[in-house]
Each structure stands twice: as structure tokens, then as C-alpha cells.
């Protein structure tokens, strides 16, 4: 019986990407919550290069970097495929996964809105999920938008992803949150809000 | 029974006196309200002790020693205390956990503002009014009859608000927000608050560099 462990941190969207992938594949795993201010020996041992979560440990061997872990999961457990089988469509899926990795850090509101526009029109288009009717790795990679975005918007007091401007993204968010497997594996909104507001208060008191 | 050890910020320039960190005060208030015996280590921020930096390289406060492990982050610390010492309960009902949560950021924005027409004063007043109305309907504490963790988190911040805005802007919360004023009086008069608050001059000294940046 194979053994899967996930080292994660509950407020992290990267950690959730792996939870979602494992759940969608119907895999059993042991989740270990890491205290990032006091990293465990296990984390330091299994990700000595970056010392970050998430880390997947499969039968004693570790994989780090969420997008790399996602690909590993997809390859190792082919049931409920999360990538299209057609190689061109697979490439497009990976293009958008890379897009969200590179572009997440927009600080200016206008630039953030432009990035969202690109995703709305070119990434999502009229599809239900990024690769069609079924949820896949690209949706998982964009998952932070479905869950974290509105919490961050509320914490910071700035709305970027208005429903009127981004109807398709809003529809995608709804579909993501209502997905039968994912809907029971979303972080608690109140807890997240309290967490981010607390972090913001600390920063304000310090700077 | 082992006494809990907690590291808190010392006053700047007076390392033998309790400092102005509101997150430290929140933890101390929690320990006091639950009547848990504790020992404080006052950490001098201009000269952090070696042993402190060894267990806490980022030098963060507050820090609590629990089960031989040092824990940081007041949210986590307060959560652990509540779990291990559930009586009296300070656990807030989930629907009030965000009451007053925007007061601190809007206070900081107004405090640092150099432009009287930037709307920051009004934004703060809106948040204070919202709290006032909540207390009118549901008070005297945010969750009703009994004090809870949300009150203990807010109290130090409201103290900072009163002291800093009074000193730097000559500003006070309008008297018309009577429920707010009653609430503040109630919080500040509690024995736990009197025991754990920083002296006004240290609160002012703490905000000085940020206001005049």
C-alpha cells in the first residue's frame, strides 16, 4: 500500500493546489500542517533547497514546487485525468499554468485588471473550465483566484475582479467552488479573512 | 504547575518597562483574564538577547513557551491558550470575529495622512460608527454580556488610536458615539487592562517615526 504525505500550510493557495489534485484523483494521503515560523525537521529534510511548502512525499521520496507536484500526480496516477490527452491542448493548458505562475505578483490595480482581462478573453473564453467541460490542472493552478482573491480584496479594500467586468471569470469561480469534489475542500472564508487581516495589522504596526 | 513564559516588547529606551506592542498586550490580557500564572521576558528591541534570537531568528513578539516549544504570532498563541485553558471561555461566536477589524488600518491611514481632504478621517469615522451601532444593538461587549477574544484584540488597538490621534492630531472620537465611549471605558477600566497597558509616552514614541516619515 503506497504512502502519500503532504506537507502544507492551511492559508496557502499552493498547498491547496495539491489537496485539490489529490482529492480529484481520489487518493488517500496524510496531511501534515507546517508552522512556517517554526519549520519542522521533516520539511527541512525533504525540501532542503527552498524549505517551502507544499512538499509531497510519496513512498519516502519527496517532490517540491506546486506545479511540478501537480505534473507528478498527473503522471503517477492516470485516473481522472487533469490534463487533456491531445498534445496541443495539453500545451495550451501548460501555457496558462505558466502564465499564472509568472503573473501573480501584479501590485498595481490597473495592471492586475489587464492581466485578468487577458485570462478572461484568451485563457477562459467561453469554456466552463480552462480545458473544456472538465476541471483540470490549469483550473487548480488558478484556484487562488476562486478563493483567495475576494478575501484579499476585502482585506486590502480594493476590488479588482468586478463581476460586471469579468463575467466569465465570475462564472468560472462559481463552477470551481461548486465542483462536487472541491466544494468540501475549500478553506474557511472567515478564518482566512481573520488571518489576512491580522497579518495586515501586524504590517501596519511595524512599517 | 509550570508557569507559562511569554516574551513581550520592552519600552524603547526603558528596557525594564513593558512596551507598547498591541499584539503583546493582547496575549497578556488573555492570560490575565483567564487568571493563568505567567512570567514575562521583556525584550529590548535595540539589544535583543542571544537566546531569544536563537529560538526566534526573526525576533518577533509576542512569543509564548508552551510544552517546551516557543510559539509566535498572537493569533496562534491566543488560540492555543483558549484550547488548553478553556475556562473562562473567551471564544467568540464566528459571526462577530470581524467586528471592528477595519478600525486599526483606517486609524493608521488617518494618523499618517498629511492631506485633510483625502477621506481617511471619514473612513475611520465610518468604521467607528459601525462599531458604535453594533454595540448599541448587541453590547456592552462585542459578543454581548461577556468579554471575549475579539474585545481583547481590539482593546490595545483602541488605546493606541486614542493616544496617538490625540497627541499627533489633537483628534478625539466624537462624543456622539456614546456606545463606543462606554465600551472603551469598560475595557480600559478592567484590571487586566490597567496591568498590561503601556505608558502613553511609549505609545507616542512608538508611532513618532511613522508619523513623521
Automatic annotation (TrEMBL), chain A:
Pfam families: GST_C, GST_N. One of its GO terms (biological process) is glutathione metabolic process. PROSITE patterns: GST_CTER, GST_NTER. CDD domains: GST_C_Tau, GST_N_Tau. GO terms for cellular component: cytoplasm. It comes from the Eukaryota. Its EC number is 2.5.1.18. Residues 2-81 form the GST N-terminal domain. It catalyses: RX + glutathione = an S-substituted glutathione + a halide anion + H(+). Residues 59-196 form the GST C-terminal domain. GO terms for molecular function: glutathione transferase activity. SUPFAM superfamilies: GST C-terminal domain-like, Thioredoxin-like. Keywords: Transferase. Belongs to the GST superfamily. HSP26 family. This is Probable glutathione S-transferase. It comes from Olea europaea subsp. europaea.
UniProtKB/TrEMBL annotation, chain B:
The keyword Transferase applies. The keyword Transferase applies. GO terms for molecular function: glutathione dehydrogenase (ascorbate) activity; glutathione transferase activity. PROSITE patterns: GST_NTER (PS50404). Residues 11-89 form the GST N-terminal domain. It catalyses: RX + glutathione = an S-substituted glutathione + a halide anion + H(+); L-dehydroascorbate + 2 glutathione = glutathione disulfide + L-ascorbate. GO terms for biological process: acquisition of seed longevity; ascorbate glutathione cycle. It comes from the Eukaryota. CDD domains: GST_C_DHAR, GST_N_family. Pfam families: GST_N_2 (PF13409). InterPro entries: DHAR1/2/3/4, Glutathione-S-Trfase_C_sf, Glutathione_S-Trfase, Glutathione_S-Trfase_N, Thioredoxin-like_sf. Keywords: Detoxification, Glutathionylation, Oxidoreductase, Transferase. Belongs to the GST superfamily. DHAR family. This is Glutathione S-transferase DHAR2-like.
Amino acid at each position: 500500500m503506497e504512502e502519500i504525505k503532504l506537507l502544507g500550510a492551511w492559508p496557502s493557495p499552493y498547498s491547496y493546489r495539491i489537496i485539490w489534485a489529490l482529492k480529484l484523483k481520489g487518493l488517500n494521503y496524510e496531511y501534515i500542517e507546517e508552522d512556517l515560523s517554526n519549520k519542522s525537521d521533516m520539511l527541512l529534510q525533504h525540501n532542503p533547497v527552498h524549505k517551502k511548502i507544499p512538499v509531497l512525499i510519496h513512498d519516502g521520496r519527496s517532490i517540491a514546487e506546486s506545479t511540478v507536484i501537480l505534473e507528478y500526480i498527473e503522471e503517477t496516477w492516470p485516473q481522472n485525468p487533469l490534463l487533456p490527452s491531445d498534445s496541443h491542448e495539453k500545451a495550451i493548458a501548460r501555457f496558462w499554468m505558466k502564465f499564472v505562475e509568472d503573473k501573480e505578483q501584479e501590485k498595481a490595480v490597473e495592471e492586475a485588471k489587464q492581466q485578468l482581462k487577458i485570462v478572461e478573453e484568451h485563457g477562459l473564453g467561453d469554456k466552463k473550465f480552462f480545458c473544456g467541460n472538465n476541471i483540470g490542472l490549469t483550473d487548480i493552478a488558478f484556484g487562488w483566484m476562486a478563493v483567495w482573491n475576494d478575501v484579499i480584496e476585502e482585506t486590502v479594500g480594493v476590488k479588482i475582479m468586478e463581476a460586471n467586468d469579468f463575467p466569465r471569470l465570475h462564472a468560472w469561480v462559481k463552477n470551481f467552488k461548486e465542483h462536487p469534489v472541491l466544494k468540501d475542500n475549500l478553506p474557511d472564508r472567515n478564518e482566512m479573512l481573520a488571518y489576512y487581516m491580522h497579518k495586515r495589522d501586524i504590517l501596519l504596526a511595524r512599517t | 504547575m509550570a508557569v507559562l513564559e511569554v516574551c513581550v516588547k520592552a519600552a524603547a529606551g526603558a528596557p525594564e518597562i513593558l512596551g507598547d506592542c498591541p499584539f503583546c498586550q493582547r496575549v497578556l490580557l488573555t492570560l490575565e483574564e483567564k487568571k493563568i500564572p505567567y512570567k514575562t521576558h521583556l525584550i529590548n528591541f535595540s539589544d535583543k538577547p542571544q537566546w531569544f534570537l536563537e529560538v526566534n531568528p526573526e525576533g518577533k513578539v509576542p512569543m509564548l513557551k508552551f510544552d517546551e516549544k516557543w510559539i509566535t504570532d498572537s493569533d496562534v498563541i491566543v488560540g492555543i491558550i483558549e484550547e488548553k485553558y478553556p475556562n473562562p471561555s473567551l471564544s467568540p461566536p464566528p459571526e462577530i470575529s470581524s467586528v471592528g477589524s477595519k478600525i486599526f488600518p483606517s486609524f493608521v491611514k488617518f494618523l499618517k495622512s498629511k492631506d485633510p481632504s483625502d477621506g481617511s478621517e471619514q473612513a475611520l469615522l465610518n468604521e467607528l460608527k459601525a462599531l458604535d451601532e453594533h454595540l448599541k444593538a448587541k453590547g456592552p461587549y462585542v459578543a454581548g454580556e461577556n468579554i471575549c477574544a475579539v474585545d481583547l484584540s481590539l482593546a490595545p488597538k483602541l488605546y493606541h488610536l486614542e493616544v496617538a490621534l490625540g497627541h499627533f492630531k489633537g483628534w478625539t472620537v466624537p462624543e456622539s458615539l456614546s456606545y463606543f465611549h462606554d465600551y472603551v471605558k469598560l475595557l480600559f477600566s478592567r484590571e487586566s487592562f490597567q496591568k498590561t497597558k503601556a505608558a502613553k509616552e511609549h505609545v507616542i514614541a512608538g508611532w513618532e517615526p511613522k508619523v513623521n516619515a
